[in-house]
Amino acid sequence: MLRIKLTPAQRDELRARTRQPGLAPRTRDRLEMLRLADAGWRVPQIARHLGYHEQTTRKYLKAFLADGFDRLPDRPRPGRPARVTAAHLDALERLLDATERTWTVPQLVEWLDATHQVRVHPDHLRRRLHRRRFRWKRTKRSLRHKQDAVARAAAAAALATYRAQARQGRIDLYFLDQAGFAPTLPTGYTWAREGVRKLVRYEAPERRRVNVVGAWAPEAPSGPRLVIETRRREQGRYDAAAHLRFVCEGVAELPAAPPPGYRRARPCVIALDNYSVHHAQAVQGVLPALAEYDVHCYFLPPYCPELNAIEPLWRQVKYQDLPERSHTSAEALQAAVEQALGARAQALGAQLTVCPAPPVIDLPRARRARRSPQTHTHLRRSA
Fold this sequence. Notes:
Blueprint: H1 8-18, H2 25-38, H3 43-50, H4 54-67, H5 86-98, H6 105-116, H7 122-131, H8 149-167, E1 172-181, E2 210-217, E3 225-232, H9 240-251, E4 268-272, H10 281-292, E5 295-299, H11 311-319, H12 330-347, E6 351-354, H13 363-382
Parallel strand pairs: 1-4, 3-6, 4-5
Antiparallel strand pairs: 1-2, 2-3
Helix pairs in contact: 1-2, 2-3, 2-4, 3-4, 6-7, 9-10
């Protein structure tokens, strides 16, 4: 019968070796064999517990008795040493983590050859990168390099305070933003047969886009609330007048003619970005009056879309909630967008408020009306 009794020093070394990072799985199993044998387990029990043959278990226990811990790891394999060493892979990791450019496997092979004089097959390097948990992924656009770190930190702290007050029912907090939807939506993902790529019919976006303005209140006292307004090109632009109407009627729900001294039951804070319409002179002139009604606009720092809580909602709707990825008319696209937003609001348990769509205008007549004064002025100057 094979019995092993470790000394206190050997037990400490066994514990230290077991906790070493990057320990090979087979070496870890052999250390476990030794630990169980020291605990009084017999060889058949250890073999059944770890899933090894009894002869294999006895082999490594006898190897420990003969030469100690150094016999438990696998011996170096015979043959030519590996061309790509751990140092080369560490250099590749630093390269991929530190540089902003994109890299393909053939380009990495060329970099290894030029920098370390190591030539390796692309398939082998791809497998080695996979073992180090690197994957081939799509890139993502970022604006962080343009952000003011101090202003962003201050805005994040202010929004955290506002959200806490909204959860306590002290204020109404809305995140306002615009989004555009083209007839052919961005490339998405779907299940398809292997070797077959699903095709989406492309439709030109000219004169068929649908613009949406939305205000999202995730911490409203009575439950989340989503306010939206969609418009096609022939329904007019989202200008300062449309913005004020959406804020006053749809978001803040102010009366059409507020009486003197009117104030909302709770202050309303609207967080929004620096879109030119939000800073138009007509809007800036009304902000003091809105403040008297307890409606306040909080402008987010430039290049900080991640601070606007409605941005994930736009992405979810645009990339996931519109299964029909191509629409032949703006009317069909507008109906699909409104239906997707309604379904998303229902999934979030939110109350949906759809502001009435603006009336359709006669674009040729409006265009002629804008051009006619310029034509008369030009004629008078020419005369």
